[in-house]
Design a protein that fits this description.
8-stranded mixed β-sheet, about 290 residues, 10 strands, alpha/beta
Length: about 290
């Protein structure tokens, strides 16, 4: 098999006007990398409240679970993106029947495509001092499933039979496109995800927890972020509270306290980019900037 050799420097200069070193940037001159954080955990563990401690948050509210925060902070002016008919149909032109086709009021809103288009259109306007919060990845995946399983979205083979693999191919492609859009943003990104017990290929429990997602992209999800933490709610009646308090370096205060587990163990695989971060820290942005 023939191997294509790289072009010589003078040939590259002639073809592009640049040489090798014109394409290189020393690492110390790279721009500051924003945090892309995936927070996983069971429902009701305070993940949304923790995410909202990040600077200048803009929350894309797929879960519709901001009532508690709003009541606790009645004067809060945190900017929220609501994927209602005005945004999806009027502003983003995302028909539930497909691009370029009239919207059908009898069908659910096409939040699958609207969420992606919002990032494509408005994502470049987000600045480094902002934080985009997607609450939650789990609900966004549910919206994908709902839209992609509508009768007019189902794919068929040439023989007229339903292509049962098309859905999973599209789901993997959509997930990859969304995470690539996150990577292109200049702002911090926090994506919230529920968790599920992991199973192996035989369907047996492995003893680990992973982000709740079906399809081939599930095992890749955490790797698309600079950081992946598990949120835990500590309460005085927890069986293993002493272990968490030892990691935290103090006793918990009050009836409950929310923390991020940032170290991998038998239960959870973490990802950490923040230097000097402790294995267990309070679940807020301040924990990431005090290191």
């Amino acid at each position: 098999m023939a191997v294509t050799l790289p072009v010589k420097e003078e040939q590259a200069k002639k073809e592009t006007g640049f040489n090798l070193f014109d394409t290189l940037t020393p690492m110390n001159l790279l721009p500051k990398q924003p945090i892309r954080l995936l927070i996983q955990g069971p429902p009701g563990e305070g993940k949304t409240w923790a995410a909202l401690t990040f600077p200048n948050p803009i929350i894309r509210n797929f879960d519709n679970k901001l009532t508690g925060y709003k009541e606790a902070h009645p004067d809060s002016k945190i900017n929220t993106v609501i994927f209602d008919e005005k945004l999806c149909v009027e502003q983003l032109k995302c028909s539930n029947m497909g691009f370029g086709k009239p919207n059908n009021p009898a069908m659910p809103l096409n939040i699958r495509d609207a969420a992606k288009k919002w990032l494509q259109v408005f994502g470049p306007q987000l600045t480094p001092d902002m934080t985009l919060i997607d609450d939650s990845w789990t609900s966004l995946q549910n919206r994908f499933d709902l839209q992609s399983q509508l009768p007019h979205e189902i794919s068929y083979s040439r023989s007229g039979e339903e292509d049962k693999f098309a859905f999973w191919r599209l789901k993997q492609k959509y997930s990859a496109e969304m995470t690539e859009l996150y990577k292109a943003l200049k702002c911090n990104v926090v994506v919230i995800c529920h968790e599920v017990r992991e199973r192996n290929e035989d369907g047996n429990l492995t003893g680990k927890l992973k982000p709740l997602m079906q399809g081939g992209f599930a095992d890749q999800l955490a790797g698309q972020f600079t950081d992946c933490y598990r949120q835990v709610c500590l309460t005085p009646d927890m069986k293993d509270l002493a272990t968490y308090e030892k990691q935290l370096g103090r006793k918990i205060n009050g009836e409950r306290e929310y923390v991020w587990q940032t170290k991998s163990n038998a239960l959870f695989t973490a990802c950490v980019s923040v230097p000097g971060l402790k294995d267990l820290v309070p679940a807020n942005y301040s924990s990431l900037i005090k290191t």
